TrEMBL record:
<dbReference type="Pfam" id="PF00005">
    <property type="entry name" value="ABC_tran"/>
</dbReference>
<protein>
    <submittedName>
        <fullName>ABC transporter ATP-binding protein</fullName>
    </submittedName>
</protein>
<feature type="domain" description="ABC transporter">
    <location>
        <begin position="3"/>
        <end position="230"/>
    </location>
</feature>
<keyword id="KW-0813">Transport</keyword>
<keyword id="KW-0067">ATP-binding</keyword>
<keyword id="KW-0029">Amino-acid transport</keyword>
<keyword id="KW-0547">Nucleotide-binding</keyword>
<dbReference type="GO" id="GO:0005524">
    <property type="term" value="F:ATP binding"/>
</dbReference>
<dbReference type="GO" id="GO:0015658">
    <property type="term" value="F:branched-chain amino acid transmembrane transporter activity"/>
</dbReference>
<dbReference type="InterPro" id="IPR027417">
    <property type="entry name" value="P-loop_NTPase"/>
</dbReference>
<dbReference type="InterPro" id="IPR052156">
    <property type="entry name" value="BCAA_Transport_ATP-bd_LivF"/>
</dbReference>
<dbReference type="GO" id="GO:0016887">
    <property type="term" value="F:ATP hydrolysis activity"/>
</dbReference>
<comment type="similarity">
    <text>Belongs to the ABC transporter superfamily.</text>
</comment>
<dbReference type="GO" id="GO:0015807">
    <property type="term" value="P:L-amino acid transport"/>
</dbReference>
<dbReference type="InterPro" id="IPR003439">
    <property type="entry name" value="ABC_transporter-like_ATP-bd"/>
</dbReference>
<dbReference type="InterPro" id="IPR003593">
    <property type="entry name" value="AAA+_ATPase"/>
</dbReference>
Length: 230
C-alpha cells in the first residue's frame, strides 16, 4: 500500500508538533524514520494510525483520503502498529491477545494464527500465561504477532528495540527483514545501525519537519547518527 502524506500539521493545544510534513512511502518500501527525541516521529505514527487527528493536511492510502478515517477502519483497511511500550492487554493471556486481533479481522479460523505463531517459537510455550507476566522481549514478540495476525498491508513500528535484550533485537531484525516487500513498513528507531540495516530509505525529522529522505545508496551512517543524537 502506497502512503502519501501532504502538508501535515498537528498541534497539542497551542504547541505545534508537526509542521508541513510531506512524505511518500511506496508500496512495499521499508522506511526508517529518524530524529532526535521530540522531533515528532511518534506523533506522525499516531496520525497514520488515526489515534491523533492532524490540524491540517492529508493522508492518502493508495490514493484514498483517509485523513478523517477512524482507527478501526484503518485497521480493517490494512494498517497495523507495534506501538512504543508494546501496549499488549496485560490481563489477557497470550492466546487471548492474538485471538482478539485475529477475530477482529476475520482470521480466527483460517490458519492465520498458526502461520503467525510459527514465527515466534516462544509464544506457544506462554500460550496460557497472562501477557503481564511476560518479559519485555516476550511482550514485544506478542505485540508483533498481534499486528501480523491481521495480515496488514502497512506495518508501523515505533521503537521496536526499546528495552529489549540483544538476542531479541536480532530476532526482530530478522523478522522485519522477512516482511520487506510483502508490506509497507515505517520504522521509528533510535538504534540507527539497526534501522539502516533494514531500510531502503531513511527519513530524518527535526522539530516537527521532514528534513530529508535519503535512499539507501546515499546513507552516511556517521551523519545520520549525528542527526538523531540527543
Amino acid at each position: 500500500m502506497k502512503i502519501e502524506i501532504e502538508h501535515l500539521d498537528q498541534h497539542y493545544g497551542s504547541a505545534q508538533i508537526l509542521r508541513d510534513v510531506s512524505l511518500t512511502v511506496d508500496s512495499g518500501e521499508c522506511v526508517a524514520l529518524l530524529g532526535r527525541n521530540g522531533a515528532g516521529k511518534t506523533t506522525l505514527i499516531k496520525c497514520l494510525v488515526g489515534t491523533l487527528s492532524p490540524t491540517s493536511g492529508r493522508i492518502l492510502a493508495d490514493g484514498q483520503d483517509i485523513t478523517a478515517m477512524r482507527p478501526h477502519l484503518r485497521s480493517r483497511m490494512g494498517f497495523a502498529t507495534v506501538p512504543q511500550g508494546r501496549e499488549v492487554f496485560r490481563e489477557l493471556t497470550v492466546r487471548e491477545n492474538i485471538l482478539a486481533a485475529a477475530r477482529a479481522h476475520g482470521h480466527a479460523s483460517d490458519g492465520t494464527i498458526e502461520e503467525t505463531v510459527e514465527r515466534f517459537p516462544v509464544l506457544p510455550q506462554m500460550w496460557s500465561r497472562s501477557a503481564g507476566q511476560l518479559s519485555g522481549g516476550q511482550q514485544q514478540q506478542l505485540a508483533f504477532a498481534r499486528a501480523l495476525v491481521t495480515r496488514p498491508s502497512v506495518l508501523l513500528l515505533d521503537e521496536p528495540t526499546e528495552g529489549i535484550q540483544p538476542s531479541i533485537v536480532a530476532a526482530i531484525g530478522d523478522l522485519i527483514a522477512s516482511l520487506k516487500g510483502a508490506m509497507t513498513v515505517i520504522l521509528v528507531e533510535q538504534y540507527v545501525d539497526f534501522a539502516l540495516g533494514l531500510a531502503e530509505s531513511a527519513v530524518t525529522m527535526d522539530r516537527g519537519r521532514v528534513s530529508a529522505k535519503i535512499p539507501k545508496a546515499e546513507f552516511d551512517r556517521t551523519v545520520l547518527r549525528t542527526s538523531v543524537s540527543v
